[in-house]
UniProtKB/TrEMBL annotation:
<dbReference type="Pfam" id="PF01206">
    <property type="entry name" value="TusA"/>
</dbReference>
<dbReference type="InterPro" id="IPR001455">
    <property type="entry name" value="TusA-like"/>
</dbReference>
<protein>
    <submittedName>
        <fullName>SirA family protein</fullName>
    </submittedName>
</protein>
<feature type="domain" description="UPF0033">
    <location>
        <begin position="6"/>
        <end position="55"/>
    </location>
</feature>
<dbReference type="InterPro" id="IPR036868">
    <property type="entry name" value="TusA-like_sf"/>
</dbReference>
Amino acid sequence: MDLIGRVRSASSGDVILLLSDNDQSLTDVSEWVDETGNELLAVDESGDDYGFYVEVA
């Protein structure tokens, strides 16, 4: 997972889908977007992995 690298190369308004099977990601991603100014648009918990939709600031 290289979320930070993807965000750095993305343009403002781009939406990145982060997939994770780690329960701690529910807390970590939420805290990370708060710290960075990016926006967590949605969390999909319907499959085996969590899907985090992050809009780049």
